[in-house]
Amino acid sequence: MSLTQKVAKSPSYFDAILPLICLICVVASSVYFFGLEAMSGPLQVGILIIIMLTIFILLKNGHAWDEISQAGQRGIASITGAIFILLSVGALIAAWNLSGTIPTLIYYGIKTISPNWFYPIAFFICGVTSLSIGSSWTTAGTIGVGLVGLASMLGLSPEITAGAVISGAYVGDKLSPLSETALLSAQINDVPIYEHISFQARTTIPTAILALILFLIVGVISEKPNVDAALLEAELSQFEAIYRISIWNLIPLLFLIILSILRIPAVLAILLSALFACFMSIFLQPDILIHFAQKSFNETATTLEISSIIKSIWLVLAKGFSIETGLPEMDALLSRGGMHSMLITIWLILVAITFGTLVDEFGLLNKLVTPILVRAKSTPKLIVSVVLTALGLNATAGDQYIALLIPSRLFKKEFTKRGLENKLLSRTVADASIVTSPLVAWNSCGAYMAAVLGVSTLSYMPFAFFNILAPLMSVAFALLFYRAPKKID
């Protein structure tokens, strides 16, 4: 141990609470000043400033710069795998739009809608879509926008529909191996992704069933609108005019499912599926590929050379898929993905994990959480403490990544000390942090959902049944099943 480490003193309560108070102020002010644009850079800059403040506190307490720097490096190293997976997910979304996989999922989803069962079907469709692509934001920003708009045209409640869309979207955010938050939950708690998902399903599936029942009840007791069949056909015809809609377009999805069943490492499975979808687009959507090349490289030929195909696929994977149909709503729906689209999220994760690592490794969070841990003598009480901490951070810090990362860092040592498996912590944190983020108006997720769906957070919040029930289900499991899984020596 170096001399600097010997003289380093423990943080005071003021040292421990000051960075968190400043973090709350920075997050709140960035959302206030920039709204949805806060996540595009201002929020990250604000957190970097808080990191600098934290470093000054650590230096004041006698910690060496090298010691602080190495801690930050360890934090970033812990999410290296998740970063590569995030880039792969961005490429996959773009590739699936190019191959027609996502449009076909949306097409068949709309085709199955009946106004009498609109809300549970909306929940189901968004659940299936989010499980397929692993993104609640993409699901809400694509098929969710269409469902809310369709609900308004059919005389149904946009508020209930938005609640159903968000509920379904976050089912996949918790259970899909493509979900960045599911991947991060597993990664930060040192749990293999498929093991995390399997354990996560024990609380997620019952919650989803309860949510589906509630949407069925709401659908039955709500007023029935008159059905306009022509409107539904118009929605479907837009997809048919752009893509060659066929069941064959779902082959890339089947390929990914097979790779997942074979337990291929997630990053390899996702990248392979993205490349496979791009290859299949040559046969499934040649007109789309030609249109993209003409738009991107000023190609004029009606058939593409091999070099043009390679350039198009390369660009799709890097910067995402885009299309100009003459219909702004359709263009916004289909122009998605690319590794580039994940860079802002990666930036946010990098600064959040660095901040979380510093306040954790140097005892700032431990100073505040010790009184909680002293009172949480049983496993159920410990799990309730994790849930309340995650909920509190979601409401105060205003970002789901912070609410996910900090409790994981905060309680990980205590779970290990008590012989509890890491997957119990990863599941509990996910139940409390990921799905509750869109319920907070000033949270980045709540602001995003309100903006893209056109329904205020307070209006859809009572109907986001899955999101409300998820942390309650986690607490119920903790209270009812006292024998939590233990580590096997």
From TrEMBL:
Give the stretches traversing the membrane: 12-35, 41-59, 79-97, 117-150, 203-221, 241-259, 266-284, 304-321, 342-362, 382-407, 463-482
Provide any one GO MF term from the record.
antiporter activity
* Keywords (A to Z) from UniProt: Antiport, Cell membrane, Membrane, Transmembrane, Transmembrane helix, Transport
Question: What highest taxon heads this organism's lineage?
Answer: Bacteria
Q: What is its main location?
A: membrane
Query: Where is this chain's protein located in or outside the cell?
Result: Cell membrane
A GO cellular component annotated for this chain's UniProt record is: plasma membrane
Enumerate the InterPro entries for this protein.
Answer: Na/H_Antiport_NhaC-like_C (IPR018461), NhaC_Na-H+_Antiporter (IPR052180)
The family database entries (Pfam families) matched by this protein are listed as:
Na_H_antiporter
Domain Na+/H+ antiporter NhaC-like C-terminal, by residue range, is: 168-479
How would you describe this protein's topology in the membrane?
Multi-pass membrane protein
**Any keyword Lyase?**
no
Family statement: Belongs to the NhaC Na(+)/H(+) (TC 2.A.35) antiporter family.
Protein name as catalogued: Transporter, NhaC family (TC 2.A.35)
Species per Swiss-Prot/TrEMBL record? Thorsellia anophelis DSM 18579
Organism classification: Bacteria, Pseudomonadati, Pseudomonadota, Gammaproteobacteria, Enterobacterales
